[in-house]
């Protein structure tokens, strides 16, 4: 099966609101954060799901990319 691809516009629909799953893109990979309590409602420390958060993760997050290892990958941002 081909890997799912998302445009920025498609990714924006997955914001964790109104029953939608919460997805975020990091370095071109789209991750599902829906089951993370910290992302309840599609928001986490002022960041919103449905976006490319690469810059936020690498320049503002105290966690760095270690938080990605347990997240399901759902596709690629194109």
Automatic annotation (TrEMBL):
It comes from the Bacteria. InterPro entries: Cyt_B5-like_heme/steroid-bd (IPR001199), Cyt_B5-like_heme/steroid_sf (IPR036400). SUPFAM superfamilies: Cytochrome b5-like heme/steroid binding domain. Coiled coil: none annotated. Pfam families: Cyt-b5. Gene3D superfamilies: Cytochrome b5-like heme/steroid binding domain (3.10.120.10). Residues 6-78 form the Cytochrome b5 heme-binding domain. This is Cytochrome B5.
């Amino acid at each position: 099966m081909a890997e799912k691809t998302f445009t920025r516009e498609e990714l924006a629909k997955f914001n964790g609101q109104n029953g939608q799953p919460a997805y975020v893109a990091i370095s071109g990979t789209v991750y599902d954060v829906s089951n993370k309590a910290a992302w309840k409602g599609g928001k986490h420390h002022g960041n919103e799901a449905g976006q490319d958060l690469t810059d936020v993760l690498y320049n503002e997050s105290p966690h760095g990319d270690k938080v990605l290892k347990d997240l399901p990958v759902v596709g690629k941002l194109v």
